[in-house]
Amino acid sequence: MQESPSIPRPISVLAVDDDPAFGRIIQHHLQRYPDRTFDVTLKTSIQGAMAVIAERTSFDVILTDYNLHDGNGLEFCLQLDRQQNTIPIIFLTGVRDVSVAIDAMRLGAEDFIIKEDLGESQLPKAIVTVLDRVRTRKQLRAVEKRMRMAETRAQAIKELVVTVCHEFNNPLAAIKISADLVHRSILATDDEALLGQFEVNFKKVEREIVRMRDLNFERIDFHNVKTPPAGH
Length: 232
Known about the structure:
Elements (H helix, E strand, L loop, with lengths): L10 E6 L3 H12 L6 E6 L2 H10 L5 E4 L2 E2 L2 E2 H10 L6 E5 L4 H9 L2 E6 L7 H63 L4 H25 L19
Parallel strand pairs: 1-2, 1-3, 3-6, 6-7
Antiparallel strand pairs: 4-5
Helix pairs in contact: 5-6
């Protein structure tokens, strides 16, 4: 039996508008959209909106008018920005003012829609588009963060390798000189065999140091390098 595709959860919307009648229009537009479902919370003031955000931080998107009972949409955006709130904001207003739109975008608004131009399907489509854009941006930031971490890890490993090779160079050179001096001395048969085994092992160490020094870091996937547990 083929499983039915999972139904996406409703998009949680906080609509802030001083006109309750327009709030009902927002609900109407969103409820009639066939592709997604929406859970709408209506508020008429900044204070009411901030209170419900403090109680419930799971809103997916905020719709705000410019004119509100206790301020305006820009002041609302500024309060959200001060609290480092990352809920996407869409300005939905009757104010036809380019400067307001620019100020709204500077304060983090993702879109600016004039109420008079609002078609029945425009608002839900705008919400879905904004959420997709924000999701993509978060994914890109996550990838960039992993890349920066990988680059930092690679640089630390390179510096460690350089340090290790440098620390080995002088002791290895001294050991090699001492071994040559011993080799020139008159030794018993057992001593010759022991020295021969030492030279074999010594050359292995030298080869490993050279291999470490010549590592091609560009071929190492530092994204998948696991960090050992603490204490190891």
